[in-house]
Design brief:
CATH class of the largest domain: Mainly Alpha
Oligomer: single chain
Radius of gyration: 17 Å
Helix content: 25-40%
Order of helices and strands: HHEHHEEEEEH
Number of domains: 2
Shape: globular
Structural class: alpha+beta
CATH architecture of the largest domain: Orthogonal Bundle
CATH superfamily of the largest domain: Winged helix-like DNA-binding domain superfamily/Winged helix DNA-binding domain
Distance between the termini: 34 Å
Strand content: 15-25%
Number of helices: 5
């Protein structure tokens, strides 16, 4: 995570600084791995009336600009996070859907080298670990 201000991150990415974009970045800083509904609720709390489409458009723009990473665990809605620039993975609870980060076991991205690339240039690798979180395991 960078120490550059969110305003400067938006400018450096070629995006205009808007209240909705800033509120979405703040929502994701407060709620890592948030889905769009969570971001919408946090943005609405901060700004008042904001349309669902506006939040989806902001999340798309932030993802396209590389300021946010979108992950899509199987069977779950897309989630968004501010942790970018490394090749970390995720662990997902099969019961409640909680998600946490797992650092790459090998190091440099991509941390998994396929036996064949079929001519592709591999830029990243994703691993999703599935299990039960401590709360669900204890229940």
């Amino acid at each position: 995570m960078t120490t550059t201000s969110p305003e400067q991150q938006l400018r450096d990415s070629g995006l205009r600084v808007t209240a909705t974009r800033l509120a979405a970045l703040e929502a994701l800083a407060q709620h890592p791995h948030a889905d769009a509904d969570t971001v919408l609720n946090v943005v609405r709390t901060a700004l008042g009336t904001v349309s669902v489409q506006a939040v989806y458009d902001v999340l798309h723009a932030l993802t396209a600009a590389g300021l946010v990473r979108q992950i899509e665990p199987a069977g779950h809605p897309a989630r968004y996070e501010r942790r970018i620039g490394d090749n970390h993975h995720h662990v997902v609870c099969r019961s409640c859907g909680a998600i946490d980060d797992v650092d790459c076991a090998v190091g440099h991205a991509p941390c998994l080298i396929p036996s064949s690339t079929s001519g592709f240039t591999v830029e990243s690798a994703e691993v999703t670990y599935w299990g039960l979180c401590p709360d669900c395991r204890g229940a």
